[in-house]
Design brief:
The chain is mainly α. It has 25 helices and no strands.
């Protein structure tokens, strides 16, 4: 590429990015999905950029390589990183059924209809069914975010797309090999079994590769203190996983990147400090924005080359087959099937959710990239690419622009009475906090009496209005005390989780204990989602490790008659178990006491909660848990003082060092010390922190 051509390419890339920001602003003003706006602008620019007036700019084109190796890993990893495994696990059955059985049904319907209605040969019809079955819900998910659609529905749509991309591409590559490349197809049981095994191998090994890379990179990222290194490693993870799985091992790169993103976004996220995690979210959201902007603009430019007039009949028929026939049948069949295996109405996918999943099956960049893999010399390349372009454009113009109406029609985006009850409770607390804050401002003479009286009247009126609305809601809600207990229990669990994160960030609990405590909170949240309160369940898990358990190495050494090594290993293992139990009980004690303090303040500061039976019930529960954790810590200290006392001293010292760090930062921000002095203090603090390590007394 000549220097002038390279200059044009660079200008075009930055020009497209600038254009995308303008499209984003206009789309928000016109209430048009951003992805739809990008596609339309790309279509509009297509005739100009392909007119020959700027020939050098034709070096930038929508191509399979650009999608698969540049944009797709970023988009898949970014989506997977934001999926909470707890939510994904709850709809895993539905998502995998849609991406496997639903995909197979869609391919079958599309291929049969295209064969009989459009006269396509069976092989070509099946090929089209496979390439057009991958979904791209970017526009839909943006609307979901805007309308605050329930996480369950968002996870189903996003999860189906992520897994469907992998399974659909594997199916397309399998059919492509026989139909386009002319590989011999044998229908003997042995050959069919072998091909099925290859498909299964591609999927399973792809997931395993992604999990392996995700675990390795997550550990490496957690061990680095440099945020630039951490973010770079995450970018390397996304693309390396895709390239190694798809390019070197010949398995599904999409599913590998998906599993890597899930591992990094859930297990790996727990290893990150809160500030680092926020940086990850911001950077990957930024990368996702850039990738989507360029993908849909370039997609529009490419689709603009389609000969719409020559293939208009095939485009209309294929669009109707894919969007109006195959999609509804495949989704309803899959979700009705999974509903039959679910117990309880709240666990089933409602008809309204099913309708949104059907209409959210938009086709996008992956389908276009797959169609472009078909060589021009293949007899049906042009009609297949035209049909693909048509389905993509129709799904964007029809489905993406009307999904908001469907969400409002089905009332999915409308707050339920329970949601309004929760919102009213929150608004009431906020107004009372603001009224207390106004008293503080007046007392400190930060505001004058007239300003105080004006604002007090304003917030008092809001408080009265919300309180009256809350009373009406309480009457309309069945069993409003139970609804209130669910809301406040959710609040208490949030306080616990925030406390555990803080303890982990301050190195006061190990990663192992933090994971156990986090999973405990997740299980309780799951039970709340299924309308099970804490007092209504039977504990099945033992969260703290037993001290007297034997480790595997000790057992092996004893079998080998290496008793000295076994004894040494037993001592180390026992001490680690004691510390692990101590960390667990200490974290539970601190978190439960934090909940008690916050709820006591809730009662004292907010009249609506004074004397509340629900608040008293939760306070009693957490006081009991706090006393239980304290008692267990005292028992451990009495039994193992040589281990517990030094450890508790170390924890107290670490808390002091954390306070020192905050004071130093505060002094720097206020100008009390210079950056030079701050750096000197930081060096000393790091040395003291490194030396603040627990070492038990020798027996």
């Amino acid at each position: 590429m000549h220097q002038t051509q390279l200059l044009y390419v660079a200008l075009l890339v930055f020009g497209l990015l600038s254009l995308s920001t303008l499209v984003h602003l206009v789309s928000k003003k016109l209430h048009v999905p951003f992805a739809v706006g990008l596609l339309l602008v790309g279509l509009g620019l297509s005739s100009y950029l392909n007119s020959g007036l700027v020939p050098d700019l034709n070096y930038i084109q929508f191509s399979p390589d650009l999608i698969f190796y540049v944009f797709l890993p970023t988009l898949i990893f970014e989506s997977a990183y934001h999926i909470k495994f707890r939510q994904f696990k709850g709809v895993f059955r539905e998502v995998t059924t849609l991406a496997t059985l639903g995909l197979a049904i869609s391919i079958l319907i599309v291929s049969v209809a295209c064969h009989y209605l459009l006269g396509l040969p069976w092989g070509v019809a099946i090929l089209f069914g496979a390439l057009i079955s991958s979904t791209d819900p970017v526009a839909v998910l943006a609307i979901f975010k805007e309308l605050k659609v329930p996480k369950k529905l968002t996870t189903i749509v996003d999860g189906e797309s992520l897994i469907n991309d992998g399974t659909a591409l594997v199916a397309f590559q399998f059919i492509f090999k026989f139909v386009v490349l002319g590989a011999a197809l044998s229908l003997t049981p042995t050959s069919i079994g072998l091909e099925f095994w290859k498909l299964l191998w591609s999927i399973v090994v792809g997931l395993m590769v992604g999990t392996f890379f995700g675990a390795i990179f997550a550990t490496a990222i957690a061990k680095s203190d440099d945020r630039g290194v951490q973010l770079t490693l995450s970018l390397v993870l996304a693309h390396t996983t895709f390239l190694v799985a798809g390019g070197l091992l010949g398995v599904s790169g999409i599913l590998a990147t998906l599993s890597a993103g899930l591992v990094m976004g859930n297990w790996g996220r727990r290893k990150l400090k809160p500030d680092t995690n926020r940086s990850f979210v911001e950077i990957w959201s930024f990368l996702g924005f850039i990738s989507n902007a360029l993908v849909f603009l370039l997609l529009g430019l490419k689709l603009g080359e389609t000969d719409w007039l020559e293939y208009w009949g095939m485009i209309l028929v294929s669009s109707a087959i894919v969007l109006v026939v195959a999609r509804p049948i495949s989704v309803y069949t899959s979700l009705i099937g999974t509903n039959l295996t679910r117990k309880g109405k709240e666990n089933k996918i409602s008809p309204a959710y099913q309708a949104v999943v059907v209409w959210g099956g938009i086709r996008g960049a992956l389908a276009a990239a797959a169609a472009l893999l078909i060589p021009a010399e293949f007899a049906y390349a042009a009609p297949l690419q035209a049909m693909t372009a048509g389905v993509i454009v129709v799904s964007f113009l029809l489905n993406a622009t009307t999904i908001k109406w469907l969400l409002k029609f089905t009332k999915i985006s409308v707050f339920s009475r329970a949601d309004r009850f929760r919102q009213a409770e929150a608004e009431l607390i906020i107004n009372e906090e603001v009224l207390n804050f106004l008293d503080y401002l007046l007392d400190k003479k930060y505001i004058s009496k007239p300003i105080f009286e004006k604002l007090q009247a304003q917030y008092s009126a809001q408080h009265t209005m919300v309180a009256n609305g809350l009373k009406r809601l309480e009457k309309s809600l069945d069993n409003n005390q139970r609804a209130l207990e669910k809301i406040l229990t959710h609040f208490a669990l949030g306080i616990e989780m925030k406390t555990y994160r803080k303890l982990f960030a301050n190195n006061e609990v190990s990663e192992e204990r933090f994971v156990v405590l986090s999973e405990s909170i997740d299980r309780q949240l799951d039970r709340l989602d299924h309308d099970v309160l804490p007092d209504e369940r039977q504990p099945k898990h033992k969260y703290a490790p037993e001290v007297d358990e034997k480790c595997l190495l000790e057992i092996v050494f004893r079998k080998l008659k290496l008793h000295d090594l076994a004894d040494a290993r037993a001592i180390i293992f026992k001490k680690s178990r004691i510390v692990s139990r101590l960390q667990h009980y200490r974290a539970r004690r601190i978190a439960s006491w934090k909940v008690v303090l916050d709820f006591e303040r809730l009662q004292s500061d907010h009249p609506v909660f004074k004397g509340s039976d629900v608040v008293n019930k939760i306070l009693e529960r957490y006081r009991h848990w706090n006393a239980s954790a304290e008692q267990k810590m005292m028992e451990l200290e009495a039994k193992y003082p040589e281990i517990v006392i030094p450890y508790r001293v170390t924890m107290a010292d670490r808390a002091c060092l954390t306070k020192v760090k905050r004071l130093e930062q505060d002094f720097l921000e206020k100008g009390f010390i210079s950056e030079k002095i701050y750096d000197s203090l930081e060096i000393d603090l790091k040395a003291r922190t490194k030396a603040c390590v627990w070492t038990p007394k020798k027996n």
